[in-house]
Specification:
Length: about 270
């Protein structure tokens, strides 16, 4: 696979918004201390060296849950014509549920979504934004959570996944969780899973396990079809890592009804 094809592949992977995965092999898991706005530098792979600490937690105690909140931010790009007729990504923008837009500093953009910034940086590889939704911190509306994947080999058999918190007011990006995994995708034994943030439940940040080539149909509903593939990160116990999440029955039924309605409309 040549370099140009690999870049295009990475960009296409990040456009997929629905995911699936079960069971996994974690090669290296790290609960990271906060990091500031730094330009992307590939993370070296090492033997497992989990890092924990009180400062890693984003809450002092868990919040009551039981209800899935999928009202999160999405991302888009501001474009420019350079030269005329050639559309390029100019800025990464986070958009609130109400439509309010926040321009992301280029240093953060280049770090969390490297493939889409190639025209500006001419750098290959790096992390790519994978969030389905970027959920809001349950007690601080200025903070959202996002996920990225960084393929370490061209076959996507070894990937580093990260979950970040991002402050919309200060542009401070902090790595909350990181893992390096390999050959753990349920769709392909030779590729690794990726993570996608999808919502919150109380003080839990919900993520879906995905395969980078997963391309489900238009009537696929994640809370119904992928209910057994959801995990969570408890903000009051980040050191505990990702744990299996049981989707509430009302959310599963909601997904089933929506899927059935979609299928009927397609007939």
């Amino acid at each position: 696979m040549n370099q140009k094809k690999f870049i295009i592949t990475v960009f296409a992977v990040c456009a997929i918004i629905v995911i699936g995965a079960v069971g996994y092999v974690v090669v290296n898991t790290r609960v990271a201390a906060p990091t500031s706005n730094t330009v992307f530098t590939p993370t070296p792979v090492s033997t497992p060296t989990p890092t924990t600490g009180e400062s890693s937690n984003l809450l002092t105690a868990p919040l009551a849950g039981g209800e899935v909140n999928t009202s999160g931010y999405r991302y888009e790009f501001a474009h420019k014509q350079d030269p005329p007729g050639n559309t390029l990504n100019d800025h990464l923008v986070f958009v609130s549920p109400s439509g309010e837009k926040t321009v992301v500093p280029d240093s953060i953009w280049f770090q969390i979504y490297a493939a889409t910034a190639f025209d500006k940086t001419e750098k290959q590889g790096g992390q790519n934004l994978t969030s389905f939704y970027m959920p809001v911190h349950p007690t601080n509306k200025d903070i959202i959570f996002l996920s990225t994947e960084e393929p370490l080999v061209e076959t996507f058999s070894r990937i580093t996944n990260r979950i970040y918190s991002y402050n919309l007011k200060t542009s401070e990006l902090k790595e909350v969780y990181s893992e390096t995994v390999e050959n753990n995708s349920p769709m392909n034994p030779h590729s690794a899973r990726i993570l996608r943030t999808v919502g919150t439940d109380g003080s839990k940040v919900l993520v879906l396990y995905d395969d980078y080539e997963n391309s489900p149909g238009p009537c696929t509903k994640i809370w119904y079809h992928y209910k057994d593939r959801v995990a969570y990160l408890e903000l009051a116990d980040v050191q505990g890592g990702l744990k299996s999440y049981t989707v509430p029955s009302y959310k599963v039924e909601e997904g089933r009804v929506d899927s059935d309605k979609c299928l009927q409309e397609l007939q």
